[in-house]
Design brief:
The chain is α/β, with parallel strands linked by helices. It has 5 domains: 226 residues, no CATH class; 79 residues, no CATH class; 179 residues; 163 residues, no CATH class; 97 residues, no CATH class. It is built from 33 helices and 9 strands. The strands form 3 sheets. It has a 5-stranded mixed sheet with strand order 7-6-5-8-9, sandwiched between helices. Strand 6 and strand 7 form a beta hairpin. Helix 12 packs across helix 31 and helix 12 packs across helix 33. The protein is elongated, with a radius of gyration of 47 Å.
């Protein structure tokens, strides 16, 4: 047969014949040792080359052949070139177990029956970097039915030359199970090949491999020539070559994994981009179909289909979609990405709020399309930056809440701030509408919050207050209420019919405007539109009243409106854009009437209206029956102009002035408390006045300021900032002073002034931002999307309202959050 030339083959001791009983006894002892092998693994150590006897040292040619995998396929030309000196190692025990390589996970590299199946992380790399030694059968088990170690070598194609041998370095013998395994097939066989349950790859703890030793020569050769073995062997050689060149199997697998991760990230980038685009623009996502190529698939899937034309990765993904394949396009995945994006924006906003220390809360409510009460949460802060200081009012969420009492609403607000990790002790302002449950003096939300934090000043919403000023003033003056009612009826008459509206547009350039109960400026717009287009409205009504193509009711209504606007035209001059400044209103009350009267007369003259009519309808209301006239002196008769002045103009002006004084008292008081820090007062106040204002502010805000230091800062503030101002000091505003201190690094020297300005600018003036969030609510949660969940509604709203944060959002961060949220089908 020739000399054995396998470099991994260990020395074989001289064979000694033993009795059957002796063999049986030894086999029993060995089986018991094998059963305890896993627990006794620490007894075995990797064979150290430094302790190997010289008799076991391989020749140079043999070392070259063992180290070079490609050399295993080179025929061995002569026995002398590959001869091994075979001697028994004196240090070897009788157990027959040697050369076992023990790793941290306690499996034996040379025994596939002790490997994990499947292999754990890192075990494949260990087996690749430390190729297992080829074990030999234990003494006494070599015979006709045992493994023949000569099978470790393959005879060349010329049977007449038995010295031409090739090493089967893929063949492993398991001592523990007395069976054979294929090393390369166990590590590199394809998944479909593993389903064949071949004994050659049946590795695993306690598993047996091939043990038909009667036919071992034929069966080993058959496996060697199989397709599975050929493919696995090629893969093994390629991985060894890659390892020698620095590209190990682990690196190749990592590179392949990174390639897959890159592909999926490109796909998910497109998906996230599409979701954020639709959310920012308040567009619906889904259609009636969930198939991407259907006509009714909705905006999201249609947008994905469009993007796939310009993204190769997304195009591959869309083309490979199937029923059981991961798509990440389902509605639940859309909701996950919406939730992650919304939460990231919310987290970023709250982080900025906490870094700015002081904040104000603003809450307002409105019913949605599903008749649920939606409360909008807005936080107002001042952004401090050397590039410029800004006031920011950030939307946080919509809260569905049914409670109506001040106690219930206060608990909800306090709990919400706690969940947002915001300290209510740092709240310096409250902003609500003027409802009694919110702004009530004793049991409203603002009063209950002030019990928790006395520094949280509530300022009634200026916009709501101004609207109530005009609304209440008109309701208390019958003539004004009648006038606005007639103007609204005129708009309703024309807008109720497209044909009437067409006739109106034919005669006017500017159409009539509707009035709103919550927006006083709409009343001004309605009156102004009628004043400017009176001639056209007049002609349109006349055409309708005389037309034979309209019904009798329309003719009657047109004729009635025609007569109304003829009769009351002079009071149209009362349409004014009311200001909230009391001095202007007082001056206008004294001097404005004559100017307004002259304008009204000029306009009435242009359109042919009698200026002496308009209030004569009141004359009949004052007449008494004849039986009551005796002894009663009738009041002196007033002219039409005098009646208009006393009954309309003066009454409505007095009511507006009284309403403004009462409703804006808190706003004026707060502005007065802080006003010594800017403008005219900073320039002109005396030292005593400054001291009084400073001490009053310190008393109100406690430990936010240090009194003596604050006073010294204010005394030096005027001189310090004058050189940095680009406008006269008396024209400066609070934000101007704050910007000067921040941009020029003076906040440390004027820390109390800087803090006071920040607190003042943090205080809310209106809840207009809440009202604007309601506009988004009506767009997002419309009648076609009325079943939308609360969390989805809040997340879509914050993406739409706070879209500036979306521009700076990291898509990779969203994808990473998506990946760690739960176990995914793919890795990215």
């Amino acid at each position: 047969m020739g000399t054995i030339s396998n470099p991994n083959l260990k020395p074989i001791s001289a064979r000694k014949e033993e009795s059957g009983a002796s063999k049986k006894k030894k086999r029993k002892i060995n089986n018991e040792k094998t059963a305890k092998l896993a627990d006794a693994a620490a007894k075995f150590f990797k064979l150290d080359s430094s302790s190997t006897p010289e008799s076991e040292t391989l020749s140079n040619d043999t070392e070259r052949q063992s180290g070079d995998p490609d050399a295993a396929d080179v025929p061995i030309s002569s026995a002398s070139d590959t001869a091994l000196e075979v001697q028994e190692n004196q240090g070897e025990t009788d157990s027959g177990v040697r050369g076992f390589e023990i790793y941290e996970n306690a499996f034996i590299a040379s025994d596939p029956s002790t490997w994990n199946n499947p292999l754990k992380s890192g075990e494949r790399s260990q087996l690749m970097s430390n190729r297992p030694l080829q074990e030999i059968p234990k003494q006494g088990e070599q015979g006709s039915v045992s493994f023949n170690v000569s099978q470790y070598n393959k005879i060349g194609s010329n049977p007449n030359n038995p010295n031409e041998l090739y090493a089967r370095d893929w063949l492993l013998y398991s001592v523990s199970t007395n069976s054979l395994f294929c090393y390369c097939c166990s590590l590199f066989a394809r998944i479909d090949s593993r389903k064949t349950q071949s004994p050659w790859i049946n590795f695993g703890i306690g598993n047996s491999g091939f043990n038909d030793f009667v036919h071992q020569s034929r069966r080993i050769k058959g496996h060697e020539e199989s397709q599975m073995h050929f493919q696995a062997l090629i893969c093994w050689r390629q991985s060894e070559k890659a390892s020698r060149s620095g590209n190990s199997l682990e690196k190749l697998a990592t590179a392949e994994m990174q390639k897959g991760i890159h592909h999926w990230k490109q796909v998910l980038h497109c998906i996230v981009d599409a979701i954020l685009y639709l959310a920012k623009n308040n567009l619906a996502f889904r259609g009636s179909s969930s198939q991407i190529h259907d006509d009714n698939s909705g905006n999201f899937l249609s947008l994905i289909e469009l993007l796939s034309k310009y993204s190769p990765a997304l195009a591959i993904h869309v083309n490979n979609l199937s029923k059981n394949r991961t798509s990440y396009l389902s509605p639940s995945i859309q909701n996950e990405f919406i939730s992650i994006a919304g939460e990231n924006i919310r987290r970023e906003i709250l982080k900025h709020i906490k870094s700015r220390k002081f904040f104000s809360i603003m809450f307002d409510a409105t019913p949605d399309i599903s008749h649920r009460e939606q409360i909008s949460e807005i936080i107002r802060t001042v952004k401090i930056s050397k590039d410029g200081c800004y006031i920011e009012e950030n939307f946080i969420r919509f809260i569905s809440f049914d409670g109506k009492t001040g106690e219930q609403l206060t608990k909800m607000i306090v709990d919400t701030l706690k969940n947002d990790d915001l300290d209510i002790g740092m709240c310096r302002g409250q902003g609500y509408d003027n409802g009694s449950n919110m702004a009530g003096m004793y049991k409203g939300v603002q009063a209950r919050v002030k019990e928790i934090n006395p520094k949280a000043i509530c300022i009634p919403c200026a916009a709501h207050s101004l609207n109530l000023v005009g609304h209440n003033a008109v309701n208390k003056v019958p003539a004004a209420k009648l006038l606005l009612g007639q103007i609204q009826n005129l708009y309703t008459f024309f807008s109720a019919s497209p044909s009437r509206w067409t006739i109106l547009k034919k005669h006017t350039k500017k159409t009539l405007k509707a009035q709103s109960h919550t927006r006083w400026s709409c009343k001004y717009d309605a009156v102004s539109a009628l004043l400017e287009e009176f001639d056209g409205v007049y002609e349109a009504l006349l055409e309708l009243a005389e037309s034979s193509e309209v019904n009798a009711q329309t003719c009657a209504d047109a004729d009635a409106h025609f007569n109304q606007i003829k009769k009351d035209m002079e009071v149209d001059a009362g349409a004014k854009h009311l200001r909230c400044l009391l001095d202007w209103l007082n001056e206008f009350r004294v001097n404005g009437y004559d100017k307004s009267l002259e304008k009204a007369k000029a306009r009435a003259s242009e359109i042919g209206v009698n200026c002496n009519s308009g209030f004569d309808y009141r004359a009949s209301r004052g007449n008494r029956p004849s039986r009551y006239r005796d002894g009663v002196q009738n009041p002196p008769t007033q002219s039409n102009e005098e009646t208009f002045k006393s009954e309309f103009f003066q009454k409505i002006m007095d009511q507006i002035i009284d309403e403004i004084r009462s409703r804006f008292q808190t706003l004026q008081q707060v502005a007065s408390d802080f006003s010594f820090l800017w403008g005219h007062k900073l320039e002109t106040y005396s030292s005593e006045e400054m001291k009084k204002n400073v001490m009053d502010l310190v008393k109100s805000y406690g430990n936010d300021f240090v009194g003596e230091t604050f006073l010294r800062e204010v005394e030096h503030l005027k001189r310090a900032i004058s050189a940095f101002l680009d406008k006269p000091l008396q024209k400066t505003m609070p934000l101007d002073i704050l910007n000067v201190l921040t941009a020029n690094g003076l906040q440390e020297q004027f820390i109390n002034c800087h803090t006071a300005l920040r607190i003042f600018l943090t205080l809310p003036v209106t809840v207009a931002t809440n009202e604007r969030s309601f506009s988004k609510l009506k767009i997002i949660n419309n009648y076609l999307r009325s079943s939308m969940g609360q969390e989805r509604l809040s997340d879509l709203s914050i993406i739409s309202i706070e879209h500036n944060y979306v521009k700076d959002m990291s898509f990779d961060k969203i994808i990473d959050d998506f990946a760690v949220a739960k176990c995914r089908n793919v890795q990215f």
